[in-house]
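anyone else get weird line breaks when pasting these?? whatever heres mine. first is seq + tokens for prot A
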Amino acid sequence: MYALPLTRGMPGRHPLPFPHPAVYLALMSEPTPPPVLDDEQAIARLRSRPRPWAEDYLAMYSSWLEGITTSPWLMSLPLDDHMVHRGDGVFEAVKCVAGRLYQWEAHLARLWRSAAAIALRPPLSRQELTRVAVAVVRAGGHPDCLVRIFLSRGPGGFTTNPYECPTPGLYLIATRLHPPPPQAYTQGVEVGITSEVIFPLPGVKSCNYLPNVLLKRLAVDRGWDFAIGLDPDGNLAEGSTENIALVDRGGRLVAPAPGHILEGITLTRCLALARRLVDQGLLQGVERRVLSVEDLRTAREAMLLGTTLDVLPVTRLEGRPLGDGQVGPVARALGRLLEQDIRHNPQASTPALD
């Protein structure tokens, strides 16, 4: 693996022996109820709680606060927002590089499609949302960051009824950008295949990410860098947050057909850029079609595509070399094309921070 996971085997288990049963009995015999806090005590506790993971949080806009905060202890959501307890919402993650939001308009278009699919009306226009995003990036003060947009059903209660929420919620947060380490691109990564996780709404970037979480956990437990799920017909679908593409034996760059996957913004852009490699003779064509597991096993090259990954070469499949086991020429060339597009194509991005 290119990076050791935080946990292996059974994540979350205590590394030391469990306490003796007598300890549990003693605790149960002398219960201590939690204190009832007044407002000042609650706020003081929120301020003082350690949040080492929040060092990457730069700035957040909350429709609940009606403003932007740069204090991580204030970057929270109401518990009765249906996005929290039902996953009722949609989201996007947009990369900001050198102060420009890459493929911003494409991300907004997909956000609007996802919202329409679950009958959720955004509370702002696209132009207004763009202004908010720019303000969040500027408040965060980092030209290289990741901007996540969460569009929720909003606060209103704890049932499954979406109509109890009077107003949608909108939250944007800018965090530091952490791409994979350089050796992941020079050595490639390992993937595995599983049919244990099915995506129920593959065309919607829903906040109900439990299938994606289970897919990532499965990858970590099995020692893979990434896991690729299958569609209901047993064909290649996608990873927990990334699309997959391969170079087949005929020299064509092929990605799974639309229908059972989330149409990745990076995937779509890379397929367009890859046509330049056809003109250069490095590829014989660019296609979308159903891909079987055998197609992956016999591929010349494979790669993962995503907002934080860009073009990440795959060189191992479940412990065995994929292709010749080396980073292939198409993955390298396509990665360079995408990097140039991100940094030097102003038509593909939206300015946010000078």
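and prot B, same format (seq, then tokens)
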Amino acid sequence: MKVKKLHIYKLLIAYFIFSFVCSFYFFSFASSQATDASLSVSTISTPLATVGTPTNDDAAVVDVYAQGAILMDEDSGKVLYEKNANEKMFPASTTKIVTALLVLEHCEFSEMVNVSYYAIHSVPATYSIINLYPGESISIKDLLYSLMIGSANDSAFVLAEYIANGGNNYSIDASQDTKNKFDESIQKFADMMNAKAKEIGCLSTNFVNPNGIHNENHYSTAYDLALIAQTAYKNSTLMGIVKVMSFSLPNTDIYTGETRTCSSTNALLYNNKSTYYEFANGLKTGYTDAAGYCIVATASKDDVDLIAVILNGSASHGAIPDDQIDTSREGDCKRLFNYGFDNYTYTNLASSGDVASTITIINGNKDTKSLDLIVKDDIKALIMKNEVIDITPDIKVSNLLAPIAANSVVGTVTYQYNGITYVSDLIAAHDVYASDYNNFLITLFGVFATLLLIVIIKGKFSKPKKKKRKKKKH
């Protein structure tokens, strides 16, 4: 009897091992085939333009009279022109772009802010203000509009103090203790600004105040400001504000005088001035004696969005005769924008719905195992006009085994072009069902595993019957 049980155990164990090995071999083979498929798939080949890396040689292409400048594609961050773009310079009121970004991150338009004594009296004479009064309660919306349209330096201090203290948790009187706490608040907000700049990718920027009031330790670069503009451009609320040409601040119970108004400082937006540029749509100007005339400008044409930064430029000179060159910051901007729009265009490296590759799912059934990998999103790049090359994408596919759901992400397609990476997910074109053979192996494995478990349990808990011993007669 014991010998017979031993044979049953051996037989079941053998079947178990056999089914396990078969299943393991099958899944290992399928996995390796899926991996191999990702290395040998067919690829998309798209004619593209080739563009050289921009250097200061671009000065021969565009006449820029400011000390520092850059032209950047907003979508990809590609630099189309630069002049001293990484040299540290004073940004003046272009600083306020970062202040506005922090306001929109931390506040709601409806919040009311208390105006403190030192927020008003810390603005030096000759700097622009909206003429706030201590004790007023002003909405975040009104402060932000006056900041970005009229470049109000008092509004910048009010917003910075409010955000640094997490609300109206500060004194508004004129005591020395309040002054010390105000200074601490501005330093805290400057730290927030520097953290934001670092998050954006700025490497050569340091802010010490929220408005750009001159300080030797307050600086940035044309390149860093272009990165900041990239972030601002993606904020529809902010970009809506900077298109507004004028703003009026409502009176309060503290101030009941003439209506306080301000007008846009961006001369590119005025269609009745010689400085007008029809494709301009933002962003922020700046000026101090030390910084010169600065601007971070944006423009859009034919689905191309460009950012131009001018640092330490010249003032607008009004109407310029046809035989003279406009050397102002606005003139520099217009020449840069025209250069970008005239010489660059977007092209699709791949379009949503394109078949990037066709692979075979090794454990799929015969009707569904051939799978098209579909590009999920458009991939576009800014290229120079009239020059073409071919770029072969890198297609990576996960270890794919059936079942696979239609439209599920199964890999990625990546293009490398002029140092910029463009990526889209790949999705399955249809459902892939597992083959019957695969299901058979799984069932086989399950059956024998169950049988073995039953036998083991039965053998463990069944007790052999004890033989009755015959009593010896004495």
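btw re prot B: Confidence is low (pLDDT under 50) at residues 28-57. The first strand starts at residue 46 and ends at 48.
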